[in-house]
């Protein structure tokens, strides 16, 4: 945000702008057309999880505000579990609850 403010000649606090941006992201939820219908059709037939590299504060807020959270067994957020590679997360996360997942040592 510092580069953004500098580029556009804005005399505002870049750190504050960044914090407000992240807070705003967490207040927005939106789905791809047909997503809720697909989840509804799959619900009860397969176990579903959310796996995201997003920021914890943004993703937890969005998850809580969404009308689809009840479809999922758990949500794995890279920042919470300390695994920033989706490959590590996908290979091992759904075997244990997100609060107990330990990423492999690299």
Distance between the termini: 31 Å
Identify low-pLDDT runs: none
Number of strands: 2
Global mean pLDDT = 83
Shape: elongated
Summarize the amount of helix as a percent range: 40-55%
> How many strands, which pairing sense, and closed or not: the largest β-sheet?
2 strands, parallel
**From N to C, what is the helix and strand string?**
HHHEHEHH
* Radius of gyration from CA coordinates: 17 Å
Strand content: 5-15%
How would you classify the helix and strand content by structural class?
A: mainly alpha
Q: How many DSSP H or I helices?
A: 6
In spatial order, strands of the major sheet run 1-2
Q: What this model shows, in words?
A:
This protein has 106 residues and is mainly alpha-helical. Helix content is 44%, strand content 8%. It contains six helices and two strands, in the order αααβαβαα. The protein has helices spanning 2-7, 14-25, 35-42, 56-65, 78-81, 86-92, and strands at residues 49-52, 74-77. It has a two-stranded parallel ribbon. Helix 4 links the parallel strand 1 and strand 2. The protein is elongated and about 55 Å long. The model has no long low-confidence stretch (mean pLDDT 83).
How would the blueprint of this fold be written?
Blueprint: H1 2-7, H2 14-25, H3 35-42, E1 49-52, H4 56-65, E2 74-77, H5 78-81, H6 86-92
Parallel strand pairs: 1-2
Keywords, please?
mainly alpha; single chain
Task: Give a brief rundown of this model.
Helix content is 44%, strand content 8%.
């Amino acid at each position: 945000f510092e580069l953004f403010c500098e580029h556009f000649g804005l005399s505002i606090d870049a750190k504050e702008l960044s914090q407000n941006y992240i807070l705003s992201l967490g207040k927005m939820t939106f789905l791809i057309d047909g997503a809720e219908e697909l989840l509804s059709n799959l619900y009860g037939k397969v176990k579903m999880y959310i796996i995201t590299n997003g920021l914890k504060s943004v993703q937890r807020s969005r998850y809580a505000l969404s009308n689809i959270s009840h479809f999922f067994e758990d949500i794995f957020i890279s920042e919470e579990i300390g695994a920033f590679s989706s490959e590590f997360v996908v290979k091992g996360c759904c075997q244990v609850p997100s609060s107990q997942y330990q990423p492999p040592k690299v």
